[in-house]
Amino acid sequence: MVPLSPVRESTEMIARLHALNSSVRRALLAGSIALGVALLVVSHRAETAADEVSQSYQTIDEINAVRLNFLRTSYWLTSYLQTERPESLTRMRHVSRAAEAAAARVIDMTRGDRSAHTLARLVQSELKDSLQQYLDIGNIGEREGAEAARGLMAERASIDPSVGLRGLLDGVEKAERERLDRRRHEAASEFVLLRVAAVAAVALLLTLFAWAKWRSRQLYQAATQDLQRLSEGAMSDPLTGLANRRHLEARSLELLASPPSQGQPALILLDLDRFKPINDTHGHDAGDEVLVAIGRRLQACCRAGDLAARIGGDEFAVLLQAVGSREDAETLALRLGAAVQQPVTLGSGVTVRVTTSCGVALFGHDGLSWKEILAVADRGLYRRKRRSRPVQGPDDAGDRERGGDRSAAAVAPGPVREDVT
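The structure assignment produced for this chain is given below.
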């Protein structure tokens, strides 16, 4: 017969092992639950970060919509003063309402950031004031005739009512991009936490770790794609895929700071002629087809290191990294003009054709700052445009004129010339 004490000892040992086993199981269960909760919390935060990145992208889109529709309001008012067509006033009022609606959406989207929200409200107030001035001029023209309205517009010709508005819009966009940077860092921290938790439990919860890794990779890729889209949208034109005005200016400032060892940079501005009748006759989709085709042709004409950009509705620019002389730049401008004037076949089968006016400015020779270079090329372009030639080459920008800020000219109302196809 087995002595009682050893049996008791064995029973107690089994009991202790069972208790230990139960404790381990409970610890594993608690750890699994805690890890599962942690993974769910981190995953939720990562999803929230991805959603916030997407919201930032939408907010910047709405800011650009405010800019675009404000410019369109100015354009249709100017068109009415030139042509006295009632439909121009109708379109002006329509796009002014669209601008106000976009400003209201910006206010809603920036509620989570006090500084951006305050700026958004200032944008809305400034926008209403500026739009009301345009609407008042349009109403006077409707009641008393376009001549009376032209007098009011002439009094305002030297004042750009959108200077304050542009500054506020830039402020809202800057605040939104700063918030986007904070969200990106927060998302990165959440992903790091997710990986640390998964690695710590890899031996115990291999399956759960695999799921967490897949989930974190999925969310990380979604956030990265949103950030990449936002970055590309900020530096490129969404319609043509060319560089936008911001990208063009940034590259120009780089060349001004570090000019090439041989040759000198040059800027070619191109403004399409006979483009508006295409929109009026065939619709804006057809106009977009033409702009995309022109963008591809300009890109094809660029050399290595050159940059093609769309800087306005029907305005393009080509930044030449280096040319040997002004004659070289003018030759390239003529080549660009010849490429632009080639017929474009639309998706509907209709063939249309536009021409272009060009202006050229050499870095260093025509200006030592971005504004000076842009102004010289711009004046050359519009001198050519006033001559109304079918296909315009570059104007001689060698007179080293100064002044004429292009950024203001792009917004302030100016004469509208309607070409006839």
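Interim note for the steering committee: Residues 4-83 form the longest helix (80 residues). DSSP finds twelve helices and seven strands in the chain.
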